[in-house]
Each structure stands twice: as C-alpha cells, then as structure tokens.
Write a structure and sequence with these properties.
Elements: E1 35-39, E2 46-48, H1 50-55, E3 64-66, E4 72-73, H2 81-86, E5 93-99, E6 104-111, E7 114-119, H3 122-130, E8 143-148, E9 157-162, H4 163-176, H5 183-200
Antiparallel strand pairs: 1-2, 1-3, 4-9, 5-6, 5-8, 6-7, 8-9
Helix pairs in contact: 4-5
Length: about 200
C-alpha cells in the first residue's frame, strides 16, 4: 500500500486560507485558491502559490510540473467491464496515468488503506488509450483517466481529470470507508464525487 502525502489538503482545489499554510516550494503564503505541482518521480502532489504554479507550467522544469485544472468526460469508452477485467484490471474503479520517467502507463486502485499501483504492460496501456479519444490529450504525470463502472453495469465511464483530483478521490474514500465493502457513507462519497465531475466536465 502507498501513502500519498498531504491527501487531506486535496479535499478541494479551493483551499482555506490559514496563516500556517505556505507554498511548499518557495514558502510564500497561499491564497484562497492555489495550484498543485507534482515532483517527477515522487508520489503525491504539493501545494504551491500562484507564482510557482506559473513557473512550472507547460513542462518548463525537469523536476516539477504544474497540474492543470480541466475535467473532460468521454462520450465513449470502448471497453466493456468484461474486457476491462481481461486486461488484468479486476475492479471497476481505477485511475491511470502516464509516468514519463518510467516511460509507461500506471494503474492505481483507490481503497480503504490508500492506493495500490502497478505499471501496465504496453499492450494494456495501448488498449486503454484506444478506448477513448481523451487519451490523446492526456498530459503525462499531471493528468489521469478515472474509469468507473457501477454494480452490474454493462458499460464503463471515463473522465480525464487533474491527478490531484484522482488523489482527492483516494482521500475521500479513506475517510468514509467502513467494513469490507465500504458501506453507505463511501457510496455516498463516490456519488458526490462523480456528480461534481459531471458538473465540471466538458464533453469533447
């Protein structure tokens, strides 16, 4: 199991302002709304001020990369739950991203203890990318494809999100999970999370 740093701070992109909340790169104060960056090769995200967010945008650094804030919803995801399982992804809730340092796709499984991840075989990553046009626009390291299927669903839903939003999902599940299957509170958190994505998302 993998513990991500600062998951509690990812509960919303609009973070509250407190005197002790500082930019994790330069130490400057954070405003009500702030950006996040990833450090390549490290798991999790860091909260940064507006200036640092601009500085590390668009791949201008070999170490840090600013996370964009767009959400897009696939009009079609051309993998059935059965085919999804055949690819070696046994659950109907996962997110995938491209790791530029490892040069491969990675799949992550949120759960009550955090998240487990695994590198994907090239053929599996290609099958996922072929299933949705969103993959062509996916930015390595900073964006993820969340794939979800409900109980008994015959189709899967796919969303392109900031990777900080994918980690937010992990944090919300950890806080709400009860028992073996998650319970009603976790189900309500999932419903709320995906309702927010549906409101925010653009449809290509």
């Amino acid at each position: 199991m993998i513990a991500f740093r600062s998951l509690a701070r990812l509960a919303a992109t609009d973070a509250i302002t407190r005197a002790d909340v500082r930019c994790e790169l330069c130490g400057g104060p954070l405003t009500d709304t702030h950006r996040h960056v990833v450090e390549l090769g490290q798991r999790g995200v860091q909260c940064v001020c507006h200036a640092c967010g601009i500085l590390f945008a668009r791949g201008s650094s070999a170490r840090f990369r600013t996370i964009p804030d767009r959400v897009r919803i696939a009009s079609l995801f051309d993998l059935t739950p059965e085919r999804w399982a055949e690819l070696g992804i046994p659950v109907a809730l996962a997110f995938c991203y491209r790791d530029s340092l490892r040069g491969c796709g990675v799949v992550c499984y949120p759960g009550p203890a955090g998240v487990t991840d695994a590198a994907l075989e090239p053929a599996v990553w290609d099958a996922i990318c072929d299933a949705t046009p969103l993959a062509a626009d996916l930015e390595a390291d900073v964006e993820a494809l969340i794939v979800r299927g409900g109980r008994g669903a015959t189709t899967l839903r796919c969303y392109l999100v900031p990777i900080s939003t994918a980690y937010e999902l992990v944090g919300r599940l950890r806080r709400s999970w009860q028992g073996f299957s998650g319970g009603e509170e976790a189900e309500a958190e999932l419903a709320s999370f995906f309702a927010e994505l549906e409101r925010r998302g653009e449809r290509p």
